Amino acid sequence: MKFEKNILCIGAGYVGGPTMAMIAHKCPQYKVTAVDINPERIEQWNSDRLPIFEPGLEEVVLACRGKNLFFSTDIEREIHEAEIIFVSVNTPTKTFGSGAGMAADLQYWEKTARQIRDCAQSPKIVVEKSTLPVKTSLAMERILTGDNDQVYFDVLSNPEFLAEGTAVQDLESPDRVLIGSHETERALKARKALVEIYANWVPRGKIITTNLWSSELSKLAANAFLAQRISSINSISALCEKTDADIAEVAKAIGMDSRVGEKFLQASVGFGGSCFKKDILNLVYLCRYYGLSNVADYWEGVVRINDYQKERFVLNMLNTMFNTLAGKRICLFGFAFKANTGDTRESPGIFIARQLAEEKAELVITDPQALENARIDLKDLDQDISYLDDPYKAAGKSHAIAVLTEWDVYRDLDYERIYRSMTKPAFIFDGRNILDHRRLFEMGFNVFPVGKAPLTHF
Ligand code: UDX
Ligand code: UDX
Questions:
Q1: What does pLDDT average to over the chain?
Q2: Catalytic residue among 27, 275, 287, 331
Q3: 12 ligand 1 Cβ < 6 A
């Protein structure tokens, strides 16, 4: 079969994989391929067990795989054949040299740009999907046009706004699709080609176009704004715990103002995920680079409050459990950074587990999807940690349960049974405020929500 377009994505991770699957699903007339340097990942994309857990993804992949959706490790051949190349390789925070701990590590991204340049023998549209510091596309253009002036490359910025756990839904009906480009006639033609892909299923009014730098900056700023809402509500949760205010009531009252809106005001044990912290630190680094230290400090505060929220959670456990956790069995309900994903990157669970281990607590971790990643995240800890699928077994004999991820399954457990199996006095620290605190208290638990008065029997 002859396809209308040949689309490639380099980097088949949490962003590249689902995005390509959705394009293939919505556009049977295009051939869509995702490549990755990691052969294991590609093998998993081609198997019955996809490398990432994402509700609804398996159905989409199975419907297109082998028809117009392909996963491959042959990066060079695929670059050669593609007309449009999305780049979705990871851009972690730099761990070395100048900007360590703040700036984006662009080594994979640059390597990919060079690889595209070296393998291309016909014009390509190169689309930045990875979140990158502002003006990265300029650097990409320079690398691409370096010593391959036979082939023309158009560079577009098209940041992805999907959230994990709802990726399929977000890709299917996005709030907006953002495409940044230059304004030259050639660039506008490339932009039109990308708009046409999305227009197969996204209403035109939701596809917005900007200049390249606005697009790159919008992605960093959008994540900073989202994270800022969580740090704002979490900062108020600390004040609620000192007063008689209740964070759920306060959040409701704030969110009903239509100028604010009700979403993303859920107080928690802190935000995690691969993007928020990394992107804010990137923004902070950029501001410092341009001498805007007040602006940098402002946004850095969002990350500081998040660290504070995680620290506060552990300290609260320590203080209320009579200032010693040594030898006490503590069960973590959830380790993923949010519900409906197995992803644990930057999960508050990592920090909390490490702090508890430092206090010499005996840790038991349960999670419906993230245990494999949890094991990897904590493998350097000396002490034995139990990883159990069954929350009842995990909670048995423990002194405390800490709810770290808002999985639905934790809402509906038989807490009477759990209470009977625990060491007394039994504590529950609800880091997501998803449980019925009054009921738990009446069963005998000492209950510590976030941003609400504790319910204790002491
Ligand atoms: C990545 C970026 O981290 C993020 O900034 C951006 O917004 C979207 O892309 P994600 O998809 O979550 O996010 O990362 P990850 O799941 O780690 O996927 C990246 C993939 O790229 C990995 O599978 C990795 O093996 C692959 N990769 C990395 C390459 O194929 N080539 C490389 O040179 C480097
Ligand atoms: C985020 C952005 O939402 C998305 O647009 C972008 O493309 C990538 O980064 P993601 O990190 O996958 O997506 O998930 P998100 O739903 O934003 O949650 C991030 C963290 O914030 C999670 O740890 C979540 O539990 C926490 N959170 C979210 C809260 O603590 N309270 C809330 O009210 C909302």
A1: 96
A2: 275
A3: yes
